[in-house]
Amino acid sequence: MSVDVGQRRRLEPDARREQILLVAVRLFGERGYADVSTGDVARGAGVARGLVNHYFGTKKELYLDVIRVMLTVPASALTLVPPGDLPTRADSIVSWFLDVVSRHSTSWLGAITAGGMAGDADVDRVIADAIDVAADQVLTAVGLPVHGGAQHAMARSYVGLATSTAREWLQRGDLTRAQVHKLLTATLLTMVDQVFPDA
Amino acid sequence: MSVDVGQRRRLEPDARREQILLVAVRLFGERGYADVSTGDVARGAGVARGLVNHYFGTKKELYLDVIRVMLTVPASALTLVPPGDLPTRADSIVSWFLDVVSRHSTSWLGAITAGGMAGDADVDRVIADAIDVAADQVLTAVGLPVHGGAQHAMARSYVGLATSTAREWLQRGDLTRAQVHKLLTATLLTMVDQVFPDA
DNA sequence: TCGGCTTGTTGGCACTGTGTCAACAAGCGC
DNA sequence: GCGCTTGTTGACACAGTGCCAACAAGCCGA
C-alpha cells in the first residue's frame, strides 16, 4: 500500500512486470475480474495505467497471467510418488492435496472456480490445463500412469470432487479436515476399484 | 433473429420483460458475461437499450435473473422419491440427474460454472442456492432427509462431483453416459455407506 | 562533467459500454 | 377525436479500455 509518490523511477522490465503482476494477483484475488480495473492495478503499483497495457497487452491477457500464477504456484510443489499399497498411496495423495490447497486456499480455490470470468475460451483452457496436471498426479500416485482417455477423464472428475469438497471445508467451514480426508480417500478407492476398470 | 424493424409497439410489462430475458438467456448462454453488452441484448430484442435498464436495472441484475432461470428450469422437474432399496434409489437419482442435465446441458452446465462471472457475491449466492437444492434432492432420494450440516455439505460435494463428471461427458465427450452413471452410483453408495456416518 | 542515446514511462486521445433521465408516442377510456 | 397513462426512446455524462506520440531517467562515451 506504500504509494511511493516520489519521482518516477526506471525499473528493469522483468522487475516492473512482476511488480505489476503481484499487485494484479492480489486485487483479482480479493475482488472479481469485472470489479478490478486496469486503473486499479496501475494505482496499486504506483504506475501509469498505460504501463499495464505496455507489459501485458490487454486486460484479459493480464488476467490470464494472474490465474496462471495462482494455479501453477501450488502445482510447483510436485511430490514424488509415495510407496506402499493402494490405501496408503491414496491417503498420502489426499493429504498432500489438502496441504497444498489449505496453504494457497484463496489463490487456488478462487482461480479454479475461474474467480471472475469463466466461459471465456482462453481462461477455460488455462483452468483445464491445471485440472489436467492435478489429474495426472492423482493417476500416477494411484499407480495407474495415464492409461486411456476415459481414465484421465475420471481423474478430472475426481479433481472436481476434491475441489468442491475442499471448498466446503475452507470456504464454508461446514466440514472438518478429517471429514474431507475420509470422503476423498473412500471415494478415490471406490473409483480405482470399481469404475476405473470400465475404462 | 427477426429484427421486426416496424413501428414501435407497446407490450405489457411482463411480456416485454420476459421477451428481453429470453434473449439475454440465449446470448449469455452462447457467449460469456463480458462478451455480451446490454446493447446486444437490446438489439436482439429489437428494443432500445435503455429499456433493458428500465426493466432489469443494471447489467449484473439482468445476469442474475438469467442464471436464475438457467438453474431453476431444470430444478423445476422435481421428482418424487423413488421406492426400492438403496442401490435402486441411487440408480434412479443418478439417471434422473443425467436426464435433466443432458436436456439442458448448455444452460445448466454453463450456469453452474458461473458462465462468465464468478467471485461476485450475488452470483455466487444464486449458484450456491441451486447446489443446495440439488443436494437436498440427493439426500432425500437416498433416504437421509437433511440430518446435520456436515451431511448437507457432503451432499454438495457430491453435486460438485456430478457436475464435473457430467461436463466430461457432455462437453468434452471423453466419457460415455454408462461410464458416468457407473461412476456416480458407485461413489454415491460409498459416501452413504462409509463417510456419511461421520456426520 | 556534460551531452547524447536508449528505452522505461507517462499522459492524453478515441472509442466502447453503462446508467440515467426527460421527452415522446402508442393505445386505452371518455 | 381528445386526453391521459405509461411503455418506450434517444441523448447525455461518465467510467474503463487500448493505443501512441512525447517525455525523461539513467547509462555511456567524450
Automatic annotation (TrEMBL), chains A, B:
SUPFAM superfamilies: Homeodomain-like. Residues 37-56 bind DNA. It comes from Paractinoplanes tereljensis. Keywords: DNA-binding, Transcription, Transcription regulation. This is TetR family transcriptional regulator. Pfam families: TetR_C_46, TetR_N. Residues 14-74 form the HTH tetR-type domain. GO terms for molecular function: DNA-binding transcription factor activity; transcription cis-regulatory region binding. InterPro entries: DesT_TetR_C, DNA-bd_HTH_TetR-type_CS, Homeodomain-like_sf, HTH-type_TetR-like_transc_reg, HTH_TetR. Gene3D superfamilies: Tetracycline Repressor, domain 2.
